[in-house]
């Protein structure tokens, strides 16, 4: 079962890149429900941070958005996507034969 969940990680990360902030929130909530993850709000004296555990990757943050951003950063380190650099950006270079072409 863990292999099936791991195979969802690249698709989930790629999908997040195409979504607005509201869309990403919905995607996280759906993915947590579908894969038995956790996205817990601060709980009184237990913790004052949001905690996100999804696809075997755990992150936290002072806000929901920070927890999701921290999770995405850690997930990208775990699952390198083709063309995605450590800073999260995809740099596109023209093919060598096009350089200098008018």
Topology (elements, then pairings):
Elements lengths: L1 H15 L4 H15 L2 E3 L9 E5 L2 E5 L2 H15 L24
Can you tag this structure with a few keywords?
single chain, 102 residues, alpha+beta, 3 helices
What does this structure look like?
By secondary structure, the protein is an alpha+beta fold. The protein has helices at 2-16, 21-35, 64-78; strands spanning 38-40, 50-54, 57-61. It is elongated and about 60 Å long. The N and C termini lie far apart (53 Å).
Net shape: elongated
The N- and C-terminal alpha carbons lie at a distance of: 53 Å
Strand percentage, roughly? 5-15%
Note the total helix count: 3
- Write down how many β-strands occur, each being a DSSP E stretch of 2 or more residues: 3
- Reading side by side through the largest sheet, how are the strands ordered? 1-2-3
Give a short account of the largest sheet.
Answer: 3 strands, antiparallel
Quick gist of this model?
The protein has 102 residues and is of the alpha+beta class. Helix content is 44%, strand content 13%.
